Amino acid sequence: MKSAKRSNALREEMELHLAEKAAELEADGMTVEHARAEARRRFGNVGLKYEESREIWISRFVSELGQDVRYGVRTLVKKPTLTIVAVLTLALGVGATTAIFSIVDAVLLRSLPYRDPDRLVRIFFNEPGVGLRDVRFSKPELDDLQTRADVFEDVSPIFEGSENVTGAGQPERLDGVNGSFSYFSMLGVTPQIGRLFGPQDFVPGFAEKAVISDGLWRRAYGADPNVVGRTLRLDNDPLTIIGVLPPGFRHPGPTVSGDAEVFGAFGGTGEPFPKPMRGTRVFVNGIGRLKPGLTLAQAQERLTATAAQLRHDFPGDYPPQAQWTIEIQPLQETLVGNVRPMLLVLLGAVILIVFIVSLNIANLLLARASARQHEMAVRLSLGASRARMVRQMLTESMLLSLIGGAAGVATAVGTLDLVLRFVPPSVPRLNEVRIDWAVLAFALAVSILTGFMFGLVPALHSSKVALSSAIREGGRGSGYSTKTGRLRDVLIVSELAFAVILMVGAGLLLRTLRDLLQQNPGFNPTHVVTANIQLPNPNEREMDPYLDAPRRATFGRELLRRLKTIPGVQLAAITSALPSTNTNPNAVGGTTYEGFTIEGRPVESLQDLRAERIRISPDYFKTLQASLLRGRSFTESDEDGKPLVAIIDESTAHKYWPTGDALGRRVRFRRDPTKPWTTIVGIVNDIKSDGLDIDGAPHIYVSTYQDSTKRLSVVLRTSLAASALEPQIRREIQGIDPGLPVFAVSSMNDVLDRSLASRRFSADLVGGFAGVAVLLAAIGIYGLLAYMVGQRSREIGIRMALGARREDILRMFLRKGVALAGVGVVAGLVFSASTASVMASLLYGVRPHDPAVFLIVPLLLFGIAVLASYLPARRATEVDPIIAFREG
Amino acid sequence: MGRKAQKNDSLPGSLDMLILRTLSLRDLHGYGIVQFIQQSSENQLLVEEGSLYPALQRLELNGWIDGTWGMTANNRRARIYKITATGRKQLAVETRTYAKLTLAIARVMGAQ
């Protein structure tokens, strides 16, 4: 009987007793009250007796549990091999699951560390009519969000970018964020030192104040408690530090490389901002806090209506074909949405591992249960109840799984830092990963569940054993009983099926990675070293030595002249965008796709003409060994004041001039009719500019001497290593301007490699898991057959005595292994085929039902299964009939 | 299991025996058992009524008696206990022990 039911019954019984006693006393002439009191008095202390009665069966349960645990420990100690194998595999399974879950929990599940994070949204402006998402917006549009749509408590435009910090020591390039003066109060942050921005700081342009991160405070200021009031030079602008953020604060958005460390604020209406006109769209990103009580859908509905109203009120600013509109997305979604598939696939992989581990242990326990049939039968005959026996065996499994789980948590705690080192830095919120109570609860749940899973089957099974046959059979160890046999077959088949699923997943990911690595990036990345420079962008224009293109061209020429003098450098070139480094297209200085016009074609039909404009120096293609297909490269004389020239890549040529020749045609950027035309002088082969796994947008290359930006990279063709060149590159660059930081000096191969970091991570991890799964499955098959051979040695002996040949015996056991492997592999393939599409977003150039993977995996696994069954099968042929008889 | 020492005024452990004996004659609910013991002892044995329930729990847990829901004479829902086969064996054992004990006591008292 259940405990609660039992307690209720007891209470009812005792109440009935009191009522009947009182009734009797009443019948004897007592008053109702007296009778009731007297009944209670005679009964004794009702509560105490109730507790005493309950204690009888509770203490029984506790003492039986104690008995079971003691007995369980004895059994586990008596069979140390089984215990060690089980605990080790559990430690692996639970450890891996816990580590991965701690990442999933921190990145995907836990709310963002801000006040009421559910109300924080990213704001996007879209033009679906021309296929554009996340276009820029103007100050009046920003104000409309606050005044026209009754949706936001607060909004802030955001500039994410990198800035040069100078002053003390080596100039550094930091990620910085500029927001509105209410940015921090909107997020709900309190500083650890000083204060954060507020309305009192308001200025129309950029405030000459800064808030710094905990990291920068410790690194650059030695955690100086009096840091407030000190001056920081950011892109030559002097900024006064007003506060330090608490450790763990992170800007809720993408940054150029790591975490933002300097925070500024701006009004957005005065210098250096243009006059606030509706059509002057200068802002890139926006975040907002919804008013309380508003659902996302309601807010979106109102914003859509607001956008429609604005299109109606200002038709000149919103061409109808663009269908300009406003969209919001939960901030959490925009931060972690792109890593979700990868993390979920990893979590799925470790959960499969846990399944396989518990199947393997179930198998071991089942084997042991058959060996213990005799013991069980004796205990049954001595009067133990079946339920009690199931409980006893489950206690043993739980004990095992809890020990394994504890070992797993210890493994996870011990290896988490190592695991995190392999997680690609593009995964956000990694700084929040830790083993906390939620993770521990998860690990406990996984342990209990696995314990139950691998314990229940053998426990139920062994308690069902018929008394008589078990005593008879168990005494002689004569056979592999069909019931146990079938159960073990099912376990092995499922184990193999799970291994197949993991292997198919790993195969698809590895194939994607291999294809990408073998892909021709369109240039020769070997023997190329790259370095990055960011020219300062001071808010005071007169402070800017790199203000216009001619000044930047002078700098570029001097830079190249000096770099070429470094011994071992054969060629040097400048580009505004290194291939495969496009981490954040919205960051200031990052890639921007620009609209352009083709001469002689109607403007209306050209709404979706967009290309990435890359500024390069004349030797760029030569340095990268990219091939110029037609026309000419840039020369030193393609400079300011000369006719504008451009080189396009093959894709651009095919896309925009599918029939004719693009050479000699003219284009104009930004569709500004007052700007001069640019003539196409060459066509170059496609270069994978946005990452090996991104089919890039069309590219138009222009001469850096005619058109340049402040973000530039140098590429050097040299046989020297990047690390050897770094000090010389730094010296030459800072020989021109000691305030310029030089960062991310690395070989081009490393740059390409880094663009595949997260693919490599998931492929390696799932591949590793698949390897473990295959190993466990092989051990499972081997164990099963070895056990069968042991159990049936007498039968084998008889067969051989009756004239069976060794091949027959070999075939008999091999057939068993092959049959199991076949069923398992087919089941796994069917399941993989029906679910592989969940991985589609992680694949590139490989279909989810890639025939090669679906052919190689089953063959490989089948081969392993045959090998794993061959070894015990061969042992069966070595059975000596005489010995087998004697032992039997 | 940790059995509580029986708080019984007369002989230790005798309550169990009395309950088993009562139930060997007829199936009864808790209050009925108390009444039966008092009446058949002509009110010489006064069971501390509250102690009945821990004893019933223990006997049931040992498999000596078995309680099922039924109706009392007054038509109220109650758990009616009946003695089981092992309970009868236990009763026999306890009766023998008790007989030996009372005989021994009687001898001691007679020798005086």
Protein described:
The complex is a heterodimer of chains A (888) and B (112). Chain A is of the alpha+beta class and 888 residues long. Chain A is 51% helix and 15% strand. Chain A is built from 25 helices and 23 strands. A six-stranded mixed beta barrel of chain A has the order 3-4-9-6-8-7. In chain A, strands 15-16-21-18-20-19 form a six-stranded mixed barrel. In chain A, a hairpin with a 2-residue loop joins strand 7 (231-234) and strand 8. In chain A, helix 3 (46-78) crosses helix 12 and helix 10 (340-371) packs antiparallel against helix 15. The longest helix of chain A has 37 residues, at 386-422. Residues 473-480 and 583-591 of chain A have low confidence and may be disordered. With 112 residues, chain B is an alpha+beta fold. Chain B contains four helices and three strands; from the N terminus they run αβααββα. In chain B, strands 1-3-2 form a three-stranded antiparallel β-sheet. Chain B is globular, with a radius of gyration of 15 Å. Chains A and B meet through helix 1 and helix 3 of A and helix 2, helix 3 and strand 3 of B.
Provide the helix percentage of chain B: 40-55%
Q: How many helical elements of chain B?
A: 4
Roughly what is the average pLDDT of chain A, rounded to an integer? Answer: 84
**Percentage of residues in strands of chain B:** 5-15%
As a whole number of angstroms, the C-alpha radius of gyration of chain B is: 15 Å
Name the strands of the widest sheet of chain A in spatial order. 3-4-9-6-8-7
Rough shape of chain A? globular
Work out the helix count of chain A: 25
Order of helices and strands of chain B: HEHHEEH
Globally, the shape of chain B reads globular
User: Largest inter-chain interface?
Assistant: A-B, 29 and 25 residues
Q: Structural class of the secondary structure composition of chain A?
A: alpha+beta
